[in-house]
From TrEMBL:
One of its GO terms (cellular component) is ATP-binding cassette (ABC) transporter complex. It is found in: Cell membrane; Membrane. Keywords: Membrane, Transmembrane, Transmembrane helix, Transport. This is Zinc transport system permease protein.
Amino acid sequence: MNAIFSKLTMYMQYPFVRYALVVGVLIAFCSSLFGVMLVLRRFSFIGDGLSHVAFGAMAIATVLKVTSNMLLALIITVVCAILLLRTGQNTKIKGDATLAMLSVGALAIGYLLMNLFSNSSNLSGDVCTILFGSVSILTLTQTEVWLCVVLSVVVVSIFVLFYNKIFAVTFDENFAQATGTKVELYNLLIGIIVAVIVVLAMNLVGSLLVSALVIFPPLSAMRIFKSFKGVTICSAALSVFCALIGMLVSILGGTPVGSTIVAVDIAAFVLACIIGKVLRRWCA
């Protein structure tokens, strides 16, 4: 045990490790907040679709050798989220089909562009990093860290300020609209926030594993709690804990960051299912 603490203390002396832990915790916290809403509304596929769009955006940024890949990916993903939400229900091709076309198309075009125009000598490594977030969280620049911090503060502030509206829209859009809530506006706001979270989470777990970061903590919390507030608080705490443990295990054991975090989330989900069954039997 002392050897582990000594090794961890040694790693914590490096700025890039501290950056990774701070950004990882913030991303996990933000993902869990809006993940609850997405799971309850059965919109989990939106996060997965936008993560593929973000992959295409990152591929374009890599080909163009843009200094801040995250910023360009953020702009493109947010624009796609807005277009998807504004046009998805008003065309002959409905929202779910539009999202599927957009996600598959972005994934294919992104990989094609990287093959055709990338000058990197390690194309497979670059693609693997974007898809699974293998080392990107440990190579963040100070500018990217501050961008993550600012965006995380904005996301949490929006959730806190509009908590009641988000709650109403999540559970009953028709009732919320009848009470004067601008449902379309809040749906658009939620879509933009989800796009921001997806781009941030790509640095932590990669584009293919973003959905796990959004889905597993809320689902785990729902095994134990029934109220919206209880699920939200538990999901946030569980997501931060799993991300922190996953990153520490990854740093100490040399395992891929994204995959390790998701593995910890899966273990937490299994444990939550067991706890939920025990509580139900005890309360019955």
